[in-house]
């Protein structure tokens, strides 16, 4: 794909994510949506955090595309490095995790993750925008151009930090309000919660490693070189 086509694609996906975030944020006069976002706000849901993350990533990608055309350079060093770090360690793993975990739980028992009552608040197309289309967009980005992966230890550490931050927020919201972000958590014992959060990170780390392999199969070895010891 040419640079112009890539730039247009990133701009269109950015507009899509901005639009979806805008649609979800419109809660004026909507008492049902207001109740859902009570006790922690919108950002207690990983799905909505992911939509914001994707909008940020595609904004960075679009900005990089524009600056490369203006300056006539192949890469904008800092921006390209930041774009790759954002995509490889957060945008791809989290979007894939949300897609897979949501639909597995939804098909098993939707009441644990997305109760039927939400169908009256979020139309079907918006549900798919939040939980389905995020995955093909990420796959297209992998195929569209190469991404330089950080050292495995650094990438997994950053992913672990993000996972720990979200888990801490979920537990904090429960300690403050007495309500769980997702109905699933209310069904689990403390040991069960520990096992669930641990398994979730292992699953997330597996997705990260899969993304690295997928990038390697598509573009060859794009990992950051190890620094030589003096």
Topology, element by element:
Layout: H1 3-25, H2 31-36, H3 46-71, H4 77-109, H5 124-131, H6 134-144, H7 152-177, H8 183-186, H9 190-219
Rounded to an integer in angstroms, the radius of gyration calculated over CA atoms is: 19 Å
* Computed structural class: mainly alpha
Low-confidence stretches: none
Mean pLDDT: 89
**Number of DSSP strands?**
0
Biggest beta sheet summary: none
Range of helix content: over 70%
User: In one word, what is the shape?
Assistant: globular
Strand fraction: under 5%
SSE ordering: HHHHHHHHH
End-to-end separation in angstroms reads 41 Å
How many H/I helices? 9
Summarize this, please?
It contains 9 helices and no strands.
Mind explaining what this structure looks like?
The protein has 230 residues and is mainly alpha-helical. Helices cover 73% and strands 0% of the residues. The chain has helices at residues 3-25, 31-36, 46-71, 77-109, 124-131, 134-144, 152-177, 183-186, 190-219.
Write out key terms for the chains shown.
9 helices, mainly alpha, 230 residues, globular
């Amino acid at each position: 794909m040419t640079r112009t086509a890539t730039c247009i694609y990133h701009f269109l996906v950015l507009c899509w994510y901005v639009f979806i975030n805008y649609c979800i944020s419109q809660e004026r006069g909507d008492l049902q949506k207001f109740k859902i976002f009570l006790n922690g706000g919108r950002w207690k849901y990983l799905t909505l955090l992911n939509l914001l993350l994707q909008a940020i990533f595609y904004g960075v990608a679009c900005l990089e595309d524009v600056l490369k055309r203006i300056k006539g350079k192949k890469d904008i060093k800092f921006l390209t490095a930041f774009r790759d770090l954002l995509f490889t360690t957060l945008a791809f793993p989290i979007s894939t995790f949300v897609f897979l975990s949501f639909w597995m739980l939804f098909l098993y028992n939707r009441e644990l993750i997305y109760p039927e009552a939400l169908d009256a608040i979020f139309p079907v197309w918006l549900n798919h925008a939040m939980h389905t289309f995020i995955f093909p967009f990420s796959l297209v980005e992998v195929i569209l151009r190469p991404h330089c992966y950080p050292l495995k230890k650094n990438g997994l550490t950053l992913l672990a930090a993000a996972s720990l931050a979200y888990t801490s927020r979920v537990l904090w919201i429960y300690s403050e309000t007495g309500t769980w972000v997702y109905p699933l958590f209310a069904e689990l014992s403390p040991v069960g919660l520990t096992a669930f959060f641990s398994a979730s990170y292992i699953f997330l780390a597996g997705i990260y490693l899969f993304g690295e392999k997928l990038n390697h199969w598509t573009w060859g070895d794009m990992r950051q070189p190890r620094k030589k010891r003096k």
